[in-house]
From TrEMBL:
It comes from the Bacteria. Residues 38-206 form the Glycosyltransferase subfamily 4-like N-terminal domain. CDD domains: GT4_PimA-like. InterPro entries: Glyco_trans_4-like_N. It comes from Methylobacterium goesingense. This is Glycosyltransferase involved in cell wall biosynthesis. Gene3D superfamilies: Glycogen Phosphorylase B (3.40.50.2000).
Length: 411
């Protein structure tokens, strides 16, 4: 299936899911607020926007103006017909910055202009903006989906304590939490306290078309890495595993697809390790096109929430090796015992070797089983309906709190 055909099929899946996702919620005006239009967070927002628009809601986006490049610009242009409230782009810094005050005022103005009923923040920065924006003229409910972010900082560090303190305070400004994994929900309870707000676990969902098998390319790399190029994704441990496997006499090649702040450092490290001829780098592109070009996908992450890249590879029945972090065990379900400890190049190398050496039929059956499990538990329909159900509960709670108490009638 070509990339364009897949996109059309996925759009069809979204439209089919929209009816089931409406949940009986009257039409709402929904603004999704997030920082970077890249990666799994962006995919989640795009899918939700399509679902919600198809279900009759007016949807708009607010995001950073400087990240994502041409790929994000094209994705936003493709999404434009679904966005009755349009796209607003403005400067947003990754870390706290005085310019956040200007962004908050701009978001508040935009929410007031469109009469937003729902401000849904995604990620740490989007969550701050959506919950603190001082909107006048309307009183939107404030929804928050963390997507990992600050919850992945190492517990006990100053940064973790500061961010969890902020989350504890922001919970008072949150009408509904829509955690994308049990893992992140547990981290919030453990380190920011019980939110004492309406809470839903809304797993990322994927469309029917993404379960179609992939036709392998003729000339394939042995290993694939697809994702952000930074140390927190565990790339150094993948390079260590590759070096160990090649030292055993396995002439393996690795294709790394992505971009990120450590791209140049990682490229230099590859050369310094003597792996220059074994590793190729390419920019971000359609995941299914990349999966067709490799035998085994490796996810060496040190921290994750509920990564789409794992869901998509599993749905496509593609052999993969992943670390036991974040919400990845939730994706693997009964097969979570196959996951590898993080920060262990030797264990990662051994797991890769097991998949490469596995009898082809046994490997096929194993990953077909994983695909069936994912299909049963991570549907786009469920994701859309669970989000709208969360909004509806928050709106009912708001209406109930605003309703004046009726004094009992005297006998």
């Amino acid at each position: 299936m070509s990339a364009s055909a897949l996109e059309a099929a996925v759009s069809g899946s979204v439209l089919q899911a929209a009816g089931a996702a409406s949940g009986g919620l009257p039409p709402q005006r929904i603004l999704h607020v997030f920082r970077a239009p890249v990666g799994g967070l962006f995919r989640h927002v795009v899918d939700l926007a399509r679902l919600q628009a198809a279900a009759g809601h007016a949807v708009g986006l607010v995001c950073d103006a400087s990240t994502g490049g041409e790929r994000a610009a094209q994705a936003l242009a493709d999404l434009a017909p679904c966005l009755a409230l349009g796209v607003t782009r403005m400067p947003m810094r990754r870390n706290p910055h005085p310019s956040d005050l200007m962004a908050l005022r701009a978001i508040a103005r935009r929410a007031a202009e469109v009469g937003a009923d729902v401000l849904h923040g995604h990620g740490a920065k989007g969550g701050v903006y959506a919950r603190l924006a001082p909107v006048r003229g309307c009183a939107p409910i404030r929804a928050y989906t963390p997507h990992g972010g600050s919850y992945n900082y190492k517990p006990g560090t100053l940064r973790h304590r500061v961010y969890m303190g902020i989350e504890r305070g922001l919970a008072l400004r949150t009408d509904v939490f829509l955690f994308e994994s049990e893992y992140v929900a547990g981290r919030h309870r453990a380190y920011a306290g019980d939110p004492r707000r309406i809470t839903r676990i809304v797993h990322n969902g994927i469309g029917e078309a993404e379960f179609d098998p992939i036709v392998p390319a003729e000339d394939r790399y042995d290993l694939l890495y697809i994702g952000e190029l930074r140390d927190a994704k565990g790339v150094p441990f993948l390079l260590d595993a590759l070096l160990r496997l090649r030292a055993e006499g396995r002439a393996l090649r690795l294709l790394m697809v992505g971009s990120g702040p450590d791209a140049n450092v990682l490229a230099e490290r590859v050369v310094a390790m003597g792996l220059g001829d074994a590793v190729a780098f390419e920019p971000p592109q359609s995941i299914r096109a990349v999966l067709a070009r490799g035998r085994v996908m490796v996810v060496p992450s040190l921290a994750e929430s509920l990564p789409y890249v794992v869901l998509e590879a599993a749905a496509a029945r593609h052999p993969l090796v992943a670390t036991n972090v974040g919400g990845i065990p939730e994706i693997f379900g009964p097969a979570a015992g196959q996951l590898v400890p993080p920060r262990d190049g030797q264990a990662l190398a051994a797991a890769i070797a097991r998949v490469l050496d596995e009898e082809p039929e046994a490997c096929r059956l194993r990953f077909e089983g994983l695909a069936a499990s994912v299909k049963a538990r991570f549907s786009m329909t469920r994701m859309g309906s669970d989000v709208l159900s969360g909004y509806a509960s928050a709106l009912r709670a708001r209406a109930g709190a605003a309703r004046p108490a009726i004094a009992p009638t005297a006998p």
